[in-house]
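Lecture notes, unit on protein representations.

Consider one protein chain, 445 amino acids long.
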Amino acid sequence: MTNTQSIDIIIVGAGAAGLMAARELSSAEKKVFVLEARDRIGGRVWSLPEKDFGYIAECGAEFVHGSATLTRRLMREAGLTFVPEEGEIWNVHGGMLEKQEYFLKKNDELRRKLENLQEDLSITDFLNIYFSGEDHEKLRSEIIRIVRGYDTADPEDVSTFELRDEWLGEKDLGLNEGKIKEGYGALLTFLKNESVKEGVEILLGSVVNTISWRKNSVRVRTEKGLSFSAKKIIVTVPLPVIPTINFEPAIDGAITAASNIGFGNVIKIILRFEHSWWYRVDDKDMSRFSFVLAGEGFSTWWTQYPNTLPILTGYMGGPIAKQYKNASDEELLGMALDALVSIFGVQKEVLQNLLVYSKVLNWVADPFTRGAYSYTSVRTKNAYKELAKPIENTIFFAGEALHPGTATATVESALGSGEDVASKILEIEENQIPNLANLNPNAML
């Protein structure tokens, strides 16, 4: 066990933000100790071994979104391979499968209304005000599906301003999307190994329940009764987990800020079949099928195209996922197969006979995640800035919600936030060291 008196910084959470911060701080010769609640590193990144599904399946984060300059730089350092996203996006309307053209490309009125919007409101309110009536029903349905299945957000709570920035900016759906062939887990393992080489210690299975602090001094206690002391602490747990930690004294401003940032819900399921039975549906050639957006429940599905593996991944996102927090894996598997029956018109018994292996990832029920990832709600306002501010230069927060720009709610954002907070700590410490060259030597006598 490390000598707790020599620790400079404790990091709570060994996900992307925590490991990135650990690497940056340890390379600057800071003594860093990481406490991770799970029995593995990664947090919402969880890559399965190839033997399970015939490829490295992602239980959590899967896609590299947009330019992701930091992620791609780290991938090059780690020798990992970027695989561009390809294929066709399909949608279901009126029980019919049809190829989807991105909704902004075919609707100048929607683009104009978004660009001219002066006051923020939820996307539900925006659609009801500007696109009501039966003639816009298809558009409303398509947008709500994307908000739930892509942003995992509540349409009645998510900020239209935020969605506008996402849709009209770099996070335009499908722009520069791709995956890491070796899995996100390989990237985080690289960061872990880099950190450990610099002396970072990572203690798994350590649930933090209390953080006692005063300026430039923290003491952390775990559920197992272990105690660790340091000068500073970085908390990188998901937003809903922050209030479960007892801070002494309380940090009410940060807790309120965390609660005012939206946090989505998701249940993910990965299905392996004997063969890719969806290649032809009725008279439709779906051999290039990449994504499909459907109705309720498991409403978003994707393949591994251009990889021809017989794998389908389903996503239940938004408020409905929370309704099924306590559902069994068997119940969720049944719901997933029912969704495929509805989308593709295939018999459930056929799917059951073709199914080889399945895995349900109920992130809503996970006590160390309690959902999916962040989104900007109409209540958020200055919450991001508030939570990103260090408390007495002693308590720092980092994670996918706190990196500014278009990458929010992605692994890129988590990595960037970890890098940002490490730089902030190093800058603070540098400014606290007196410059001896500028001191009056007589004043030191």
